[in-house]
Write a structure and sequence with these properties.
12 strands, 5 helices, alpha+beta, five-stranded antiparallel beta sheet, about 15% helix, disordered C terminus, about 300 residues
Length: about 300
């Protein structure tokens, strides 16, 4: 304690009586405050002037989940395949794929199956990376309108052999270090609905650097080559709560046998991909109307 403060405390008396020890402590605190010392204070998080971050108006939130289904589950009694054209359903069937849309509520037994399949995230033993298909619980994807998102399916495989070409003339092609994935593009419609565009792809080969154009600029990106199946692109318009279902057919053929193999995790079961529309931000009812500037104005 400074000598000056001690002398001042020694000189304090009340009606010629010495001040108590507690009184001396209070006097010392008062003198410290008067000498310019300030108390340590912390700002409250609730009083922050910063606004919470908000999603952009064209953001679409998709819930993604895998569930294992057996033939006895009769999945397709609860799925409407009429959302897809007859021609697209035929092409998907030739490649061992099948797709449709459910209503706003999934069947209860599917929700029960998802809860039963909850487990810890496992790592691929060879690559040490997480495998999306091993995550049985729903995952949320935030998608920007018109910008693709990739959904990796399964782990990297030594080689995938597929028949390429039309029905009359096909040839086998081998893809080394291959992996199946889906390219997902969402487009918000403004009335609460969203158009989903899902295209199967197979990435393969050794990753290499390449220039990629984006938003008027170029960036160096490390990626593999890929085989894209544009003729199998699925276009579906979903309302909030509806789910796009994608899986393989009963016969293992085409790319379907590699995307959704039977018995990979559970004997006699086939994985099914569920893409549910959880949320969309775009609402053109309250969007500002565009203003147009006339090309020419009347002369004075």
């Amino acid at each position: 304690m400074p000598a000056r403060t001690q002398r001042m405390m020694d000189s304090f008396t009340v009606r010629n009586r010495p001040v108590s020890r507690f009184g001396l402590m209070m006097i010392a605190l008062a003198l410290s405050a008067a000498s310019g010392c300030s108390q340590w204070t912390t700002a409250s998080m609730d009083s922050s002037l910063l606004q919470k971050p908000r999603m952009s108006p064209d953001t679409v939130v998709i819930e993604l989940a895998f569930v294992d289904i057996s033939p006895a589950d009769n999945l397709w009694e609860h799925v409407d395949e009429q959302h897809l054209s007859v021609d697209l359903r035929r092409r998907l069937g030739q490649q061992g794929l099948r797709s449709g849309v459910t209503g706003a509520q999934l069947p209860g037994w599917i929700n029960d199956r998802l809860e039963q399949q909850q487990k810890m995230l496992e790592l691929d033993k060879e690559t040490g990376t997480a495998v999306v298909a091993d995550v049985d619980g729903p995952r949320r994807l935030q998608c920007r309108s018109g910008q693709p998102r990739e959904i990796e399916i399964g782990s990297v495989r030594e080689q995938i052999v597929l028949n390429v070409g039309d029905c009359d003339q096909t040839e086998e092609r081998a893809f080394d270090q291959a992996r199946c994935r889906l390219s997902l593009i969402t487009r918000a419609q403004g009335d609460g609905r969203v158009q989903l565009q899902v295209t199967p792809e197979i990435t393969h080969g050794t990753p290499r650097h390449r220039w990629v154009g984006s938003d008027g600029s170029f960036r160096f990106h490390l990626s593999q080559d890929y085989q894209r199946y544009d003729d199998l692109t699925i276009h579906a318009v979903l309302s909030p709560g509806q789910t796009l279902v994608l899986t393989g057919t009963g016969e293992s053929q085409g790319i379907g046998q590699h995307f959704f193999p039977i018995g990979e995790r559970i004997a006699d079961h086939r994985p099914v991909l569920l893409l549910r529309l959880a949320q969309t931000q775009l609402d053109d009812l309250f969007s500002p109307q565009p203003t147009f500037t006339p090309i020419a104005t009347d002369g004075l």
